[in-house]
Design a protein that fits this description.
The chain is built from 13 helices and 18 strands. With 459 residues, the chain is of the alpha/beta class.
């Protein structure tokens, strides 16, 4: 039996999701759940939880907020796959009886790039937690979130204070003080003759400056001697990218890393490379693995055929062989949602949240959630990604590299599709000068701390 919420196909700012009709809820509660998501026993199901234990929690309901930046006018639909994934997972969970019998009601928030703080102010007044969300400008909303004790299990964080923020746990952590450097180590194995021929593209955007500083230290740890060609691009775009491409050409670059997502400005730079007659290996975050790069490359004669994107997630192309990927694709596709890497990331964080919520039983409070989340030290989202340590905010020690040819991505390293290469050396302790924030002895960012934040009971 498939039951979808009435709102699932009409997502807009502050739309609500979830909540089965009474008959459907009763049927779900009557049937014992043997549902799995990949290798993970479903955390959802019937139960007898009762009590208005915290903001957004009643006898019958749990209210959570989620969202993305899909309303950003310069990139409509930005990260829409995240909101689509959480909306679909809410219904998937409610079909099984919710969490211990309480139905989940999700409120969608559109950060639209510049509205992250307004979103968080609204969420502070009504939601139990934020789950599976990600806002590119989260540095503008972190102080608000911490001040109202809005615990969170985001799909991703961007700013340093959010990445190591209090009351925050992620399915795939990305802390400032440790990094998974697998991509650089693996690229070094793929192109051992080019260790002295790579550079990093700098930007005027503060969060990207922080990211590229960290990337330089990771590249060094992996054996690269970066050229430091001195090219900095305006985040808002340049009138012409040819002069910058010429500078890279003069510098002798044969490989480049970008910390930006696949946006028009980056595509214009790739076009400029072609105009000046160079074709460097182009490396990027996992966000490059997706439709934006695929479609642009197909329409531009394969100018991005040298693209390499490092990932700790399974490729969507592996849905036939990796059960968790198939489950993700099926759940989201059934609701007409967009499937992409960040959608899997949001799904992992939703499942992490739901797993902790189940353990809290009737006593569903933010304190209990923090206690439970802090004790989860092995997590792979049912097989969606390499094993991480959410409780300690530590990334994976594994990875793979994808490459693009025409409109098709394939796994380039390791060569066997669906496998990761893992190595303790991939976990890099980054220099404090690259963190972009100050951390306390518990590795939590201190900037917005106050005496009322919720800490694990054992700490």
């Amino acid at each position: 039996m498939a039951v979808t919420s009435a709102c699932a196909s009409d997502r807009g700012p502050d739309s609500s999701f979830g909540g089965l009709a009474p008959v459907a809820a009763a049927e779900a509660a009557a049937a014992p759940s043997e549902v799995k998501f990949g290798t993970l026993e479903s955390p959802c199901g019937a139960g007898d939880a009762v009590g208005a234990t915290d903001q957004g929690v009643t006898d019958t309901e749990i209210r959570i907020g989620f969202g993305d930046d899909s309303g950003y006018v310069k990139s409509p639909g930005l990260n829409k796959e995240m909101g689509d994934a959480v909306a679909a997972m809410i219904d998937w969970c409610n079909e099984q009886g919710g969490i211990n019998g309480r139905q989940i009601t999700g409120t969608y928030y559109d950060g639209a790039m510049t509205q992250a703080n307004a979103v968080m102010q609204n969420a502070c007044g009504s939601e139990f937690m934020m789950v599976g969300h990600g806002f590119a400008m989260d540095q503008t909303s972190e102080q608000t979130r911490v001040a109202c004790n809005l615990a969170a299990v985001p799909a991703f964080t961007v700013s340093p204070d959010a990445a190591n923020g209090p009351m925050t746990y992620q399915g795939v952590p990305f802390p400032v003080d440790y990094a998974n450097g697998s991509q650089w180590f693996q690229i070094a194995e793929m192109y051992p003759d080019l260790l002295n021929d790579f550079d990093v593209i700098d930007s005027t955007m503060p969060t990207i400056i922080t990211s590229t500083n960290k990337i330089r230290s990771i590249a060094t740890a992996a054996g690269f001697n970066l050229k430091n060609c001195g090219v900095t691009l305006n985040y808002e775009g340049e009138s012409s990218y040819v002069p910058f491409a010429e500078k890279f050409k003069e510098c002798g670059v044969k490989g480049l890393w970008t910390s930006r997502s696949p946006v028009p400005a980056e595509f214009n730079l790739v076009k400029a490379f072609d105009q000046v007659g160079i074709d460097p290996i182009f490396m990027g975050e996992a966000t490059w693995y997706g439709d934006a790069a695929r479609e642009w490359n197909g329409a531009n004669g394969g100018l991005l055929d040298n693209l390499n994107a490092g990932m700790t997630f399974q490729m969507i192309e592996n849905a036939d062989t990796v059960p968790a990927v198939k489950d993700y694709v099926d759940v989201v596709s059934e609701q007409g949602g967009k499937t992409a890497l960040l959608g899997m990331q949001a799904t992992s964080s939703f499942l992490l949240w739901a797993t902790a919520a189940r353990e809290c039983g009737s006593d569903l409070t933010r304190q209990c959630m923090i206690d439970e989340l802090s004790e989860i030290h092995e997590w792979d989202g049912g097989g969606l990604h390499a094993v991480t340590d959410p409780g300690a905010n530590m990334p994976a020690k594994c990875g793979l590299v994808t490459t693009l040819e025409g409109t098709e991505f394939s796994q380039a390293f390791p060569t066997e599709a669906g496998t990761f290469k893992c190595d303790d050396s991939y976990l890099i302790a980054t220099d404090a000068s690259t963190w972009g924030t100050d951390l306390g002895p518990d590795r939590i960012a201190t900037k917005y701390l106050n005496p009322n934040i919720i800490r694990p009971a054992a700490s």
